[in-house]
Specification:
By secondary structure, this protein is α+β, with helices and mostly antiparallel strands. Helices cover 32% and strands 18% of the residues. The protein folds into 2 domains: 105 residues, Ubiquitin-like (UB roll); 323 residues, Glutamine synthetase/guanido kinase, catalytic domain (Creatine Kinase, Chain A, domain 2, 2-Layer Sandwich).
Length: 452
């Protein structure tokens, strides 16, 4: 192997042990979270310190179209300098040859971070914590569906066929038998994750037909976002090996629960390493309450990032383990903000509003930004919800257009995430929303064609 491979992460070195590395995939996340980049022969990758991609990739919509700014008079498409972060070097074990993936960071020609690159947005927020002597720690939970192969968008998505030959059953949360139905797919997920050096905290069956959840161990926000970015790809690849699809849509099947990316947060003092949510006696601190207060105050403006597509808002319905408001409560899964049962050292706040369809870098960045604004403003939260939060009023935007309105009127959040990012994100999401509004749905044809 070439000398540069001697400094790879341990899992990558073990994957290549005794093998000849063939190819390196140089990748970066765009706004939707799609991996963009180039595949290079390993020999060529070893000879270069960076490569180039046009900055216009961040103006692409989920349909592959372009946000308005990419076509504006005066917009100049420029090449970015993409620099590999070798700590992210990871196997691509589903490929036919010996391949590594490496996540890259985006810079302009003056080596300043590209402000609308999602990984840079998250780093900006993490740096804002560091400037205040704080270290954020997160733990994401990933929900997704294994579904039958859907090659016709006109057809409804169906649960996958389990190894019993029957469709995956709904309402079987935490059932080990249900998990066994997907055994071959789950085996490949474990194998791929092990080859990539990822630690899975657990896999459970959720409430939907073919819906699973993977929990990741807590850690550094950027590293965890990298892992979720990688996990989405490896799960899709594992599913396709077994004639099914993995989908991270927020609401793929109308009558089933949606898929969330719950984000657990705790904050450490950089000097002492202690959790600032707990005092020396193990009691809840003002910082704990201020963090929740910041989420209640600023999350409405961040919903457009946590729920980035028109489909995302179909998840926010009562009694489907999805929040409809910003209530907070201890061990209360009906609330949008939950405080799980935990020791004082592990005291944390869970954001249940983020959908699994959000970009993990942006979702974690927006969630942490809201909490940090709360720490700065020192505003106490509303009284704790100790009952069924679904009995209260909904205060989560119900459509993407309303969420974008709130996002565009949030200068404090823009400053946390980066004003240029906020500008570009709004342009891209407005383009997607307007494109969706041009589509006539089957419901409209069925009920309006002959009746109005």
């Amino acid at each position: 192997m070439a000398d540069w491979t001697d400094n790879l992460p341990q899992a990558a070195r073990e994957y290549l042990e005794g093998k000849r590395l063939d190819e390196v995939e140089c990748i970066i996340s765009d706004l939707p979270g799609i991996a963009r980049g180039k595949a290079l022969p390993a020999s060529k990758f070893a000879k270069q310190k960076h490569f180039h991609l046009p900055d216009s990739i961040f103006f692409q919509t989920i349909t592959g179209d372009w946000g308005e700014a990419a076509g504006e008079t005066g917009f100049i498409e420029q090449d970015m300098i993409l620099v590999p972060d070798m700590s992210t070097a990871s196997a691509a074990p589903w490929t036919g040859d010996w391949t590594l993936q490496v996540i890259h960071d985006a810079y302009d020609r003056d080596m300043k971070p590209i402000p609308f690159s999602p990984r840079n947005v998250l780093r900006r927020v993490v740096d804002a914590y560091a400037e205040r002597g704080l270290v954020p720690v997160v733990a994401p939970e990933m929900e997704f569906y294994l579904v039958g192969r859907n090659t016709d968008p006109g057809q409804a998505i169906q649960p996958m066929m389990g190894r019993s030959g029957r469709p995956a059953a709904a309402r079987q949360a935490y059932s080990m038998t249900a998990v066994d139905e997907f055994g071959p797919v789950i085996d490949d997920i474990y194998d791929f994750a092990e080859a990539q050096g990822f630690e899975i905290d657990g896999i459970t069956q959720e409430g939907g037909a073919g819906q699973l959840e993977i929990n990741l161990a807590h850690g550094d926000p950027i590293q965890l976002a990298d892992e979720v970015f990688y996990f989405k790809r490896l799960i899709r690849e594992a599913a396709m090996r077994h004639n099914c699809f993995a989908t991270f849509m927020a609401k793929p099947i109308a009558e089933e629960p949606g898929s969330a990316m719950h984000i657990h947060h705790s904050i450490l003092d950089a000097k002492t390493g202690k959790n600032v949510f707990s005092d020396d006696d193990g009691n809840e601190t003002d910082a704990f309450y201020h963090f929740i207060g910041g989420m209640q105050r600023h999350l409405p403006s961040a919903i457009a990032v946590l729920a980035p597509y028109v489909n995302s808002y179909r998840r926010y319905v009562k009694d489907h383990a999805a929040p409809i408001n910003l209530d907070w409560g201890r061990d209360n899964r009906t609330t949008g903000i939950r405080v799980p049962l935990a020791s004082a050292d592990a005291r944390r706040v869970e954001n249940r509003l983020a959908g699994m369809d959000c970009n993990p870098y942006l979702g974690i960045a927006a969630s942490l930004a809201c909490g940090l604004l709360g720490l700065e403003e020192k505003q106490m939260p509303e009284p704790e919800c100790k009952t069924d939060s679904y009995q209260g009023e909904g205060d989560v935007p119900q459509v993407l257009g309303d969420a974008l309105d709130l996002f565009e009127e949030a200068p404090k959040l823009h400053e946390m995430l980066g004003p240029e990012f906020a500008r570009v994100y709004s342009i891209v999401k407005r383009a997607e929303y307007e494109e969706f509004l041009q589509v006539i749905s089957p419901w409209e044809r069925e009920h309006l064609l002959l009746n109005v």
